[in-house]
Amino acid sequence: MRTIELPGNATGHAAPLTHVAFRSDGRRLATCSYDGTAIVWDTTEPSNPLPMNRLRHRRLVNAAAWNPADSALLATASADKTVAVWRVSETGRADLVNVLARHTDDINSLAWLPDGEHLICVSEDGRATMWDARTGAFLTEVGSHEAHCMMVSVSVRGNVATVGEDGMVAVTDLSDPGSPGARFVRRYPSSIEGCAWSRTGETLAAARDDGAVDLLTAELEHVRTIEVSTSAARTVDWADDDSSFVVGAYDGSLHFFDRSGLRTHRVDDARIWPRSVSAARGLVAAGSFWSSPHILDLATATEIAAPARATHGPNALAVRGDELLAGCDSGAVIAIDLGGDADDPAVEVLQVAEGPILSLAVRAGTIYAGTYSGHVVAFDGTRTVSGQLGAPLPSLCLDGGLLVAGTYNGEFIALDPATLTVVDRRAAHGGSVKSLAALPGGGFLSAATDRTVAVGSFHDRDTLWEHGNLVNAVAGLGSSVAASASRDHTVKVGRLDPSDGTVRQTQTLLGPDESVKCVGLLGRPEAPVVLAGSYDFGLYAWEVDWRDNAGTLASGRVIAEFGQGLSCMVRLGDHRLAAAGWDGRVVIVAHDGSGPVRVVRSLRLQELLAAPVSNEMVIA
């Protein structure tokens, strides 16, 4: 497993914040990030949070939890499949106490039992496990889910709640860790990704994928449903006195409610990543796409502290003439002139959006950007912004006279490219539409978290094939070849009949031992070259021989390695393709048919934008 290597940021994180966790006294805050670190902040003065120390894992850090019995102990959970237990002094010094390692997949969340001696960890392998945190001993499994287990919350009474992508909410009584008590289960038709016990332990809040939050008893009896958003509710936390709670939703907003379910405030800030919230002592911390956390007043939702430094992780690539366009977490599109000086290309930063750009499309010089906030922005020197479309927009394509957006909610939304008014919308997939790819003869390919890849027009579509897990990306070569990349660690490539889009032949290419994030095609339909980028930081290439299905059992050849997972690709023509990683590296690869695919150019966005920042953390 390779270790994340990102340019450092002495004042905060170098990538978006995945999780925030206040210590119970509100004087310390732990933040976790895609940059592979957790930072401990001194929040004694909430308006001026000061970084004290940086704790490192090999992969992104998903969660942190302060010990309820010993305020110096902090546990961090990572995609490197480990949990680290740290002793953090009041001066910021951190010593590693233990490493817990048994899970076979990313650890998504963790929580301490009230005794401060036992940790509950939940993983993408679906399991919830209990550990002796001080000795590092694995004790037992306390439950399992049929899909990824996303979050765990432990009440002051010792009730352990877990939620997952299988729609199950489970509560196990662990008030006596040595003798588990009653277990209760409640099932929903869609994913549950967030949960939090009230401070008294009487009420569990479950954040639903349909945008609602359910309040439940400790026995999982229904108390109340609060309608929060048109997009998924992702996270929730309670005030110290249980009088109110705050919800982060994938409409990009924070929603504040009193205990009765009355909405008191809403905060819209394109920098906020509402994947995580934490409340303590009248404060709320929220995750961020920028380098440091947001801190707000819980009673008034007034901003107390906000991040000052943007991060420029690229999420989408497109081409405009000789320019390669990279849409970034900062809302900027970085335009790189590939037709000029290869050693010192001209670069222009276009501030297209206020928050993260997830998808790009280009026509006649106009850049179209799909944003996390659920807007489409058209940019041709001036900006035109659509209405809020209900959910983040991870995919865009142009199909004839329509601009088609794919949403986190599984919809296709058709817009007029000139005015960005909505022309039509429909439920298209049973999960987030992660990727769209226009076909030259009309119509488009689509890939989604419902595991399917489809082809056709806006209304008339056929499923091409299904993966074993969610599909991250799809690409086409003319109208006769399609390829898709999946979390199941494979790439599928198929020959299509251009007359009706039916599949004539498929091959499954074995990828790396981690999720495959992006895919592209070069060459000729008779002998295509498939390129794919993975969360294992590798860029892979396969030269497809339609006559040799057995040859696909060999993994693709690694042609480049990055310092973080790869995020996106785009063809630059018949023989070249650009691939980008979240470390800010962009490579150009070429294949002229006479030899293997090779890297012909490498660029780093940080170097193009500014001088690198020191890796050193200033210790307060």
What would you say this structure looks like, in words?
This protein is an all-beta fold and 620 residues long. The chain folds into two domains: 17-305, Methylamine Dehydrogenase, Chain H (7 Propeller); 317-609, YVTN repeat-like/Quinoprotein amine dehydrogenase (Methylamine Dehydrogenase, Chain H, 7 Propeller), CATH 2.130.10.10. The protein is 1% helix and 55% strand. The protein is built from one helix and 56 strands. The strands form 14 sheets. Strands 1-2-3-4 form a four-stranded antiparallel sheet, with no helix packed on it. Strands 5-6-7-8 form a four-stranded antiparallel sheet, with no helix packed on it. It has a four-stranded antiparallel sheet with strand order 9-10-11-12, with no helix packed on it. Mean pLDDT is 93; it is low at 611-620.
